[in-house]
Amino acid sequence: MLAFAAFGSTVAAEGGSMSVLPQTPQAPARHRLDVGAYYRMAEAGILAPFQRVELIDGEIFDMNPIGSPHAAVTRRLEQGFARAVADGLLLTSVRNPLRLDPFTEPQPDFVVLPPRADAFAASHPGPDDALLVVEVADSSLAYDRETKLPLYAKFGIVEVWIVDLAARVVEVYRDPAEGRYGSAARMSEGLLTPSRIPAISIDVAALFG
Fold this sequence. Notes:
The chain is 22% helix and 27% strand. It is of the alpha+beta class. The relative contact order is 0.11.
């Protein structure tokens, strides 16, 4: 007759021999990469310099190639903010890292930042620095809406635009709270003024040429 010990321990069998009970298998745990490991992978050549990737909640995501309509919208955004940048009122950042926390460092298509003497050489900008984040979306539309937008809301990015190239509209998200945006609108024409940058107005229809 078997006498069972505590879970995961030993079993006393008839005749005095002892054996170990197997423990209940556990599901594999997700291993999240932090930005330190992410950069070490790049330094070691695991992530090649030509690869376009971003770190989202501890996972590495490949970014889609940039088509010419996508690039054109980004250039028009740069033109729209160029005067304010030249006057030292703002900085703009194109497809550069925005560090949201130790596990999340997306590379938005376009970010407007406050001026800083070192142009953020000492560290990547964080969520409190972003006056506006813009994602230009073609094949990445679902990813931008369902993965990146909730993260931007979670970390309090004050305003996000998603430029939907196929529909030729700009989705405008404002008022982040509890991981979502309280205000959402779609614009296909007219002037769009960022809430934190009242001196700038972007002609929505002109973004698409």
